[in-house]
Amino acid sequence: MVRTAAASATAGPTLAVVAREAGVSVPTASKVVNGREDVAPETRRRVTEALDRLGYVRRPRFDASKPPRLVDLVVHSLDGSRSGAVLRGVEEAAHEAGLDLVVSAALSRTRAGRPQRGWLDRLTVRGSAGVLFDLAELTQSQYAWLAQHRIPFVMIDPVLEPPAGVVSVGAANWQGGVTATEHLLALGHERIAVIAGPGRRMCSAARVAGYRSALASTGVAQRPEYLRDGGSDESLAYRRTRELLDLPAPPTAVFACSDRMALGVYRALAERGLRIPDDVSVVGFDDLPESRWTAPALTTVRQPLAETAATALRTLVRMMDGERPEGTRTELSTRLVQRSSTAPPRA
Question: What are 321-346's pLDDT values in tens digits?
């Protein structure tokens, strides 16, 4: 049989070509492709970069006539109660669907700052039928890899706006920002600060946009000095709150765009001898378990993390069965959970 140039181009480079490009033996290159651990880090890096550079395609090791009942969940991190809620939602939905679940934390990075492709290679070795990505930031080449292998996938709260046609599930973050701000406005607050998450994250930008919209709709002027970038953790939110309190006209209320950041707000206020909500009201976002443990209990916007994850899994199952969702973005509603951290401002 004569192999045409077009057929060769479609098949892509062989493992021998990759090994030669990386300056290693074929067995060593094979170990990297198959996710073996007995390879030196520097060698693994050279082989991985050669795989990406040459566009090597690994064929799945499963019988196409017997579709596997296995899905992957790739998460940004396994730390914190947020990840636990997502994992619980996916696991319960996978159990209902009769699927097995593999969880990976895609935290490792190349020297260029891109996610390692190790989980991509292991994906094909396992023969997974589909993938869920939670708070993931994929490169264009990784999107292309998934499309090339025709592996259905769904994004849970993607960090950046995904390419056209990519299916995602998340919370109604804009409406949540509106709800939090309207609650404070209804109590009589006008000096309302917002401590935002990373600006590049879709969810953070949407929550701040909701805050701005609520102020504009009631005619309350937005003060630029009341908008602070709190990253996503408690420590930076703590520092941003201290900055707000040093203003000539400090805010009477703070909307923290996550419950974790709200904890930093609490700490800064306590250090200044300010009481919640007597002196400053605080609203969070997420409704994590921590929000109920604070003193006073935190008023927050509940986003249904477990339900969002379960919806993403059910959407993925339909895609695995050949269906295509009517829309590429599904948003689950948020709601305000009012506790003890908000009250009218002092007269």
Answer: 888 888 899 999 999 999 999 999 98
